[in-house]
Recover the amino acids of this structure.
């Protein structure tokens, strides 16, 4: 006679073992030598080269992985806060600011060629400039409550923009769909940050302050709860999300782990890094083979990663 209770227990144990299986394995962690201080490192797509900023978010720098050299792209105030790379990896877009004679902040958006260092202003020295978002060959920003779209000349993609997401000056989650601006706010009023559209342009990744990180569809319906995950971003194929689970005492970071979550929220793995207590602002390569991050002191590190297929 079959013992149903035993079968049920075995099934539960097997499912727990499958769930506990690690999707990723860290094989090596190396500090990037020659960089005295940096933060918010990002891989240039399909390369091991990295763009990063300073701990104060001033200036942008390029690290050439093959030559193991660094160069300054610019020294602009706030350039590291919202910089974004084009899909072809040739240009970078960033927002910076200056203080005018009256002490008021004047903001600008620049497009910079990474190879030559040449930059040009998309909009310069203006007030009330909202979040900047680079999506599918187009740059979006809000000025005085109005959505502005700038098509990047450097893009090799189809420039027709049908869907985009970003936040306004009040940190509402805004969906732009077929030239219609919709205040989406999937979890009601509040502060929405780290907002991005999935590579297939069908899902939205966002964090709501005090609630956590979620994925919703274009109707604002929650389809995944990713839990406590900060500075989250999509992998290039849209199957995973990488971010950090960080803690602080109100003045400085006290702990932080790199977290990888499947986009459906069913699998979550914190990477175990020996001797590394605080790992911040991670970015992952297109092929899942490397992760770059900085620690609280501004040291940059490269993780060699293996993914179970």
């Amino acid at each position: 006679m079959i013992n149903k209770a035993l079968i049920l227990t075995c099934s539960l144990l097997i499912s727990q073992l499958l769930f506990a299986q690690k999707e990723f394995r860290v094989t090596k962690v190396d500090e990037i030598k020659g960089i005295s201080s940096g933060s918010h490192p990002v891989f240039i797509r399909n390369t091991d080269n990295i763009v990063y900023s300073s701990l104060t978010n001033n200036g942008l720098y390029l690290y050439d992985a093959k030559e193991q050299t660094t160069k300054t792209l610019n020294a602009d105030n706030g350039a590291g806060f919202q910089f974004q790379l084009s899909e072809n990896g040739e240009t970078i877009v960033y927002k910076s600011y200056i203080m005018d004679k009256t002490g008021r902040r004047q903001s600008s958006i620049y497009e910079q060629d990474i190879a030559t260092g040449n930059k040009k202003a998309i909009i310069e020295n203006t007030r009330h400039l909202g979040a900047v978002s680079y999506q599918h060959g187009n740059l979006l920003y809000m000025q005085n409550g109005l959505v502005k779209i700038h098509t990047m000349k450097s893009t090799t993609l189809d420039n027709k923009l049908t869907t985009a997401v970003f936040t306004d000056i009040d940190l509402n989650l805004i969906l732009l769909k077929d030239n219609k601006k919709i205040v989406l706010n999937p979890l009601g009023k509040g502060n929405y940050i780290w907002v991005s559209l999935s590579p297939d342009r069908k899902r939205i990744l966002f964090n709501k302050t005090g609630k956590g990180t979620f994925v919703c569809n274009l109707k604002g319906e929650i389809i995944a709860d990713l839990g406590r995950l900060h500075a989250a971003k999509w992998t290039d194929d849209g199957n995973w999300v990488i971010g950090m689970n960080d803690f602080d005492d109100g003045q400085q970071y006290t702990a932080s782990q790199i977290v990888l979550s499947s986009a459906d929220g069913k699998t979550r793995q914190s990477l175990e890094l020996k001797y590394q207590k605080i790992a911040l602002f991670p970015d992952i390569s297109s092929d899942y083979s490397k992760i770059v991050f900085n620690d609280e002191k501004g040291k940059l590190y490269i993780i060699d990663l293996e993914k179970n297929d």
Q: What stands out?
A: The chain has a mean pLDDT of 87. The two ends are 39 Å apart (CA to CA). The helical segments are 4-20. The first strand starts at residue 24 and ends at 31.
